[in-house]
Amino acid sequence: MFRIGEFSKVTGLTVKTLRFYHEQGLLLPTYVDEQTGYRYYGENQVETARIITQLRALEFSLEDIKNVLAHQEDDSDLLDYLERQRQMMQEKAQASRRIARALTKIINHEREAHQTMNDANFNVEEKAIEPFWIAGVRMKGRYGDCGKGFAKIGKRFGRRICGKPLLLHYDAEYKETDADFEACMPIQRKNSSDQANSYEDVSVRELPGGRCVTLLHKGPYEELGRSYERILAYVQQRGYEIISPTREVYIKGPGMIFRGNPKNYLTEIQMLVVDQGSRAS
Amino acid sequence: MFRIGEFSKVTGLTVKTLRFYHEQGLLLPTYVDEQTGYRYYGENQVETARIITQLRALEFSLEDIKNVLAHQEDDSDLLDYLERQRQMMQEKAQASRRIARALTKIINHEREAHQTMNDANFNVEEKAIEPFWIAGVRMKGRYGDCGKGFAKIGKRFGRRICGKPLLLHYDAEYKETDADFEACMPIQRKNSSDQANSYEDVSVRELPGGRCVTLLHKGPYEELGRSYERILAYVQQRGYEIISPTREVYIKGPGMIFRGNPKNYLTEIQMLVVDQGSRAS
DNA sequence: GATACGGCCTCCCGTCAGGGGAGAGTCAAT
DNA sequence: ATTGACTCTCCCCTGACGGGAGGCCGTATC
């Protein structure tokens, strides 16, 4: 017969836990002194304690453990419990992984935005852009509604999105209402049959690359106009011809968590260009 | 101004939760009527509620959310929190996956034992056995001590174990004490440099396959002797020669969870054999 | 003006698996 | 007899709410 402290050392369960298990009817002492209330545990309780410890390590609830112990003879019953527990654990693992991945995405996004911010000189630049695949929703109306388009793409392509959202502008000039634009997300190309395609009103295709004039705009979207003036002045001065649509990449905007300070929003204006006259008419 | 019920509908948070967040200082109503105690929420609280919801979806604790909200301006602070949260989530995911895998192993083991039990006729049989890799600990002493050997292998090769434990008997006959045996576990062969090898006193090598006489023994280990008599009688009758060591595979023994009923233990005795005289002397 | 109904308030208790601590009684050795 | 280690019960705490009781408030209806 062990007293509770000795039994605690033997089983590795704390005294508190043993008392709790007693109260819960999970692990009853072999004998309880009626006068003193002292609990005494026998040798055979060690085995039961071991079982409980094992099942707890598998994160069984005490309720389940009690049931399992009660139907110790019935093998298939135990298997049922094991199956259910496995199911639960797999779901928990998946949920945690999903969250971890979401966090990773947010962190990387934030990091890249930071990086871009530090590297930026906020001058008009020229660079080459690689082609990449996008999912896009063409919309007509006000720019403010583009969120719906992004949401739609997010819902359908959640996993596959691999870059920052962008807007394609099909209008030649700024329009307050009745604008013609397309909300897009870069996506990973499925290696399977991924021809240019469309699901309902979401178009999936490759955006062409090429020579590109860019300008990083810092500040709220209302002030984009000024940056457009700058970039257009540059393009005109060089005598380039713009290939429609122009692109607006949202490097850092109202984040998923914080709306952020609009003064720190970063937007890259991209215009694919060719030398004037070099284009087949 | 929303009353709490309206605000609840707008934000998707329950009334209970909103009151709780108020109490915790997480989301304060813009105005509280002193007479009636009614809470009134302003438009700008909707945004805060959204942030809280997002962070809760990422399983941030309310404590963390409070801190994040307090230092809303500080970007790097937020990044720290995100990193820590990601770390936590990854750990949780790993823990759950580990448990799920352990459960899968137990379930499969139990299933196979069941299957074996159903298929068994408990007669001596002959079959061909493929070679397979093992980790083994050679021991001298009493069979009862073999658990230590299995434990040692389990500790070192936990992940890689891919089958049921077995014992190799190097003695020609049964010995109570001073027996010479080896506790083994089948392991997955690493594709990397996995020559026959040994780590401390654990030997890693391939067990040969070949023609094999087997008998499934059902019951406690004390009764193994009778089964050995049966199988040896068979071997002698056929005039086979036994290749040492003989093997005892523990199909179903005292499980990780339940000790189980020894009457249902299953042990397969395996003896590699060749026709007499066919062996190079 | 009275009433009914729905909304809102506070306060208390429950979850799950124990942990922390207070105050009092018990065991074994000195 | 005393001491020190051990044990007992009882109560409160965790996190993020949910359930419910009992009572007040606002608005519409009779």
Mind explaining what this structure looks like?
The relative contact order of chain A is 0.10. By secondary structure, chain A is α+β, with helices and mostly antiparallel strands. The longest helix of chain A has 45 residues, at 75-119. In chain A, the strands form two sheets. A nine-stranded antiparallel sheet of chain A has the order 4-10-12-11-6-7-5-9-8. The first copy, chain A, starts with a strand and ends in a 6-residue tail after the last strand. Chain A folds into two domains: 2-72, Multidrug-efflux Transporter Regulator, Chain: A, Domain 2, CATH 1.10.1660.10; 120-275, Alpha-Beta Barrel (Multidrug-efflux Transporter 1 Regulator Bmrr, Chain A). The model of chain A has no long low-confidence stretch (mean pLDDT 90). The first copy, chain A, is built from seven helices and twelve strands. At the A-B interface, helix 3 and helix 5 of A face helix 3 and helix 5 of B. The structure holds a DNA duplex (30 and 30 nucleotides).
- Molecular shape of chain A: elongated
Distance between the termini of chain A: 99 Å
Counted by DSSP, the helix tally of chain A is 7
Tell me the major beta sheet of chain A: 9 strands, antiparallel
Task: Tally the structural domains of chain A.
Answer: 2
Regarding quaternary structure, what we see is homodimer
Share of β-strand residues of chain A: 25-35%
Most extensive contact: A-B, 38 and 38 residues
> Averaging pLDDT over every residue of chain A, what do you get?
90
Write out the strand line-up for the largest beta sheet of chain A, numbering strands in chain order.
Answer: 4-10-12-11-6-7-5-9-8
* Overall SS class of chain A: alpha+beta
What's the level 1 CATH class of the largest domain in chain A?
Alpha Beta
What is the H/E order of chain A?
A: EHHEEHHHEEHEEEEEHEE
CATH superfamily of the largest domain in chain A: Regulatory factor, effector binding domain
Radius of gyration of chain A: 32 Å
Low-confidence stretches of chain A: none
| CATH level 3 topology of the largest domain in chain A | Multidrug-efflux Transporter 1 Regulator Bmrr, Chain A
CATH architectural grouping of the largest domain in chain A? Alpha-Beta Barrel
Query: What percent of residues of chain A adopt helix (DSSP H or I)?
Result: 40-55%
Give me the count of strands of chain A: 12
